[in-house]
Structure formats: structure tokens, C-alpha cells
């Protein structure tokens, strides 16, 4: 891979599992980034800024291509964060019942040698079934999606909550848009296949 190491600026096991699909050696680094939204910042601006900041925040000694990614979930114009507990997860899912929510995933690839950063965004829509409180409680108790934006794991039992999915890359919903990442890597002369 030329003279670059590939670095994933994330401690998320989900993003690591996704990147492993590309069969390219990589290391992880913990980004140093304040994730507080700015006043009047749109969800799209927020995820692009945070993805860029994460990719640029890692202090590395060797030439690297650093991947930064950030995601928000939006319902009725409001950013929905991670629930962190059962009560909030149930509340979020009941709020999403019968609704369409949008995930915005920002993706940045920072070249530490050239100091150039490519940034893009992926949008994915989730159309929810009508959910009963009993369905939601059973789901939350089985999968405990407390650290997932929107309170579900689409790669697991969360799929049972949906009527349909709408987007270009299902990996984006989990947190790392691989199709767009492959394009950014190719712009840096890194071929996956």
C-alpha cells in the first residue's frame, strides 16, 4: 500500500468490523475531538466537521491515511443521539414507529504527508414499521442497543423493526460507508481489488 499506513480514527468495534471487510491492513487510533454541535449547525455540517476533525486529530509518527467518520440520526428535524439506557431506547423507538428517519454519515480521509483531506457524506433512510410498546420492549431487552444512534442495530435483530431501507450502502447505516471509502482510497492510489 505504497508507503502509507491506514489508520481508522475510531474505537468503535462496529467500524473496525466494517473496515476489515476490505482486507487491507489497518491500525486504530483514538481520535481527540469535541463532538458538541455548533449553534445553527445542520446535521450534514456536523458530521462532516466531526469526521474531518477525527481524521486530523490523531498524532501519528509515520505517513498515514487516516479515516474519520461520524454519524447522526435525524427524526422530524431533530438529531437523535445514542440512548445509553433502556428507558431512552424505548422512548426513541416508539418515537420512530411508522416514521422515516435519516442517517447522515460523514467520512473523511486525511493524508498526513500532503495534509490534504477528502470529505464526503452518505445519506441513508430507514422506514419504520408501526411498533407496539411490547415489540419495542422485547427488542430493547434482547439486543440492548444502548450505544447505537437511533436505538437499533440494523445488522442484528433491528432489521425486524423496519418496513424498508433506502440508500446506496447498507454499511453506512452501521457507521462506515465503504463504497465511498473505496473511492477516497482510490483517489490516493490505494486499490482494494
TrEMBL record:
Subcellular location: Cytoplasm
Organism: Vibrio metschnikovii
Catalytic activity line of the entry: N(7)-methyl-GTP + H2O = N(7)-methyl-GMP + diphosphate + H(+)
Pfam families in alphabetical order: Maf
EC primary class: hydrolase
Name of this chain's protein: 7-methyl-GTP pyrophosphatase
Active-site feature positions: 70 (proton acceptor)
Annotated EC: 3.6.1.-
Residues at the site labelled Important for substrate specificity: 14, 71, 155
Gene3D superfamilies: 3.90.950.10
GO molecular function, one term: nucleoside triphosphate diphosphatase activity
CDD domains tied to this protein: Maf
UniProt-listed InterPro entries: ITPase-like_fam, Maf-like
Gene Ontology CC, one term: cytoplasm
Function: Nucleoside triphosphate pyrophosphatase that hydrolyzes 7-methyl-GTP (m(7)GTP). May have a dual role in cell division arrest and in preventing the incorporation of modified nucleotides into cellular nucleic acids.
Gene Ontology biological process terms from the UniProt entry: nucleotide metabolic process
Keywords: Cytoplasm, Hydrolase, Nucleotide metabolism
Main subcellular location of this protein, as a coarse class: cytoplasm
Obligatory cofactor(s): a divalent metal cation
Family assignment from sequence similarity: Belongs to the Maf family. YceF subfamily.
Amino acid at each position: 500500500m505504497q508507503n502509507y499506513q491506514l489508520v481508522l480514527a475510531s474505537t468503535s468495534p462496529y467500524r473496525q468490523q466494517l473496515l476489515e471487510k476490505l482486507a487491507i491492513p489497518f491500525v486504530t487510533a483514538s481520535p481527540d475531538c469535541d463532538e458538541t454541535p455548533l449553534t445553527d449547525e445542520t446535521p450534514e455540517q456536523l458530521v462532516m466537521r466531526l469526521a474531518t476533525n477525527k481524521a486530523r486529530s490523531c498524532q501519528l509518527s509515520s505517513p498515514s491515511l487516516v479515516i474519520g467518520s461520524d454519524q447522526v440520526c435525524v427524526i422530524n428535524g431533530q438529531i437523535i443521539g445514542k440512548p445509553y439506557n433502556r428507558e431512552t431506547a424505548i422512548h426513541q423507538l416508539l418515537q420512530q414507529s411508522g416514521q422515516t428517519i435519516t442517517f447522515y454519515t460523514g467520512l473523511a480521509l486525511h493524508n498526513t504527508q500532503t495534509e490534504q483531506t477528502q470529505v464526503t457524506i452518505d445519506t441513508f433512510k430507514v422506514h419504520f414499521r408501526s411498533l407496539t410498546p411490547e415489540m419495542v420492549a422485547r427488542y430493547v431487552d434482547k439486543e440492548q442497543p444502548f450505544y447505537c444512534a437511533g436505538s437499533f442495530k440494523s445488522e442484528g435483530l433491528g432489521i425486524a423493526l423496519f418496513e424498508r431501507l433506502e440508500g446506496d450502502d447498507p454499511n453506512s447505516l452501521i457507521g462506515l460507508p465503504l463504497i465511498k471509502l473505496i473511492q477516497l482510497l482510490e483517489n490516493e492510489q490505494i486499490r482494494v481489488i
